[in-house]
Design brief:
- The chain has about 280 residues and is α/β, with parallel strands linked by helices.
- The chain has 2 domains: about 5-100 and about 240-275, Leucine Dehydrogenase, chain A, domain 1 (Rossmann fold); about 100-235, 3-Layer(aba) Sandwich (Rossmann fold), CATH 3.40.50.720.
- It contains 10 helices and 11 strands.
- Strand 4 and strand 5 (about 95) form a beta hairpin.
- It is globular and about 55 Å long.
- It starts with a strand and ends in an 11-residue tail after the last helix.
- It binds 2'-monophosphoadenosine-5'-diphosphate.
- 2'-monophosphoadenosine-5'-diphosphate binds near residues 125, 128, 151 and 190.
Length: about 280
């Protein structure tokens, strides 16, 4: 099995996806050519067509563009998220799926040992990243989801799209002090890229809380520092989610689920154990 695959987005130069898929391919004994292609709203469709790829990942800011490009040929989870991060070729053209949510849930439950069932969850942000993970959190059995966004109309739209008014609640940022404690707090905003997160009340978290930032590296530092100061026992960045969403995409393309712990360790600098072809 061979093939050309790519991740599209902007900025894309520092994407870890080519490295992750190269490690998965070595592990599976597949000769894989996976590259990063810089593309924006204006040139994504043309660059995708010109690339000759058999499948693609799509990242910021193109997940909604990819959803539109599939013209309805999308999985149920991508439809609910309104966003596509994985493209597969089928007889009708491009088929879209979204592996971000399952990747987050797998990282939290299996790598970090968190039980999501009956948890009270705060989701900060209502953009593409938030939409990608909300359906999978609900499917994982959380008790309730509070979507809090600077622009409260966008929070309303996300909550409406989930179609579970009893479990999903939309609020503006000014409502945060009155919301009480959460079991899980998720930063799905792009605030680290566009300035800074507005102040968060310490009362949102307790010693029983876990916090996750969907970004990793420098972009996750501020929120995770706040989470530790607020007492959260778990404060994790989005690197594990990145590896797990990639594994789920790899499964869709190649029919094999790669082992992810060695890849995660290699990327987080905790080990040099690249997974080998055997
Ligand atoms: P992404 O695909 O990363 O979600 P997006 O669709 O542009 O990107 O959404 C960015 C999210 O981060 C939005 O929820 C945005 O809030 P608004 O809808 O109110 O713009 C949020 N965000 C960005 N910068 C922020 C900041 N400085 N403070 C709070 N929220 C911010």
């Amino acid at each position: 099995m061979t093939g050309r695959y790519a991740v599209f987005g902007t900025p894309i130069a520092h994407s870890q996806s080519p490295r992750i898929h190269a490690m998965f391919a070595r592990q599976a004994g597949i000769a894989l050519d996976y590259v990063a292609i810089e593309a924006g709203h204006d040139d994504f469709a043309a660059k995708l067509a010109a690339s000759g790829v058999a499948g693609a990942n799509v990242t910021l800011p193109l997940k909604e563009d990819a959803f539109a490009l599939c013209a309805g040929n999308v999985s149920a989870r991508a439809r609910r998220a309104g966003a596509v991060n994985t493209l597969l070729r089928d007889n009708e053209g491009w088929r879209g799926d979204n592996t971000d949510g399952p990747g987050l849930v797998r990282d939290l439950t299996e790598r970090h040992g968190l039980d999501l069932r009956e948890r009270r969850v705060l989701l900060l942000g209502a953009g593409g990243a938030a939409r990608g993970v909300a359906p999978a959190l609900l499917d994982a059995g959380i008790h309730s989801l509070y979507v809090v966004n600077r622009n409260s109309a966008r929070a309303d739209a996300l909550a409406d799209a989930m179609g579970e008014p009893g479990r999903v609640h939309a609020r503006g940022w000014d409502a945060l002090p009155a919301l009480g404690e959460f079991d899980l707090l998720i930063n799905a905003t792009s605030a680290a890229r566009s300035g800074a997160l507005p102040p968060l009340p310490m009362g949102l978290a307790s010693l029983r809380s876990a916090a996750v930032d969907l970004s990793y590296g420098e972009a996750a530092v501020a929120f995770l520092a706040w989470a530790r100061a607020a007492g959260c026992t778990h404060a994790v960045d989005g690197l594990g989610m990145l590896v797990e969403q990639a594994a789920e995409s790899f499964l869709l393309w190649h029919g094999l689920r790669p082992e992810t712990d060695g890849v995660y360790a290699a990327l987080s600098g905790q080990g040099d154990a690249l997974v080998t072809a055997d």
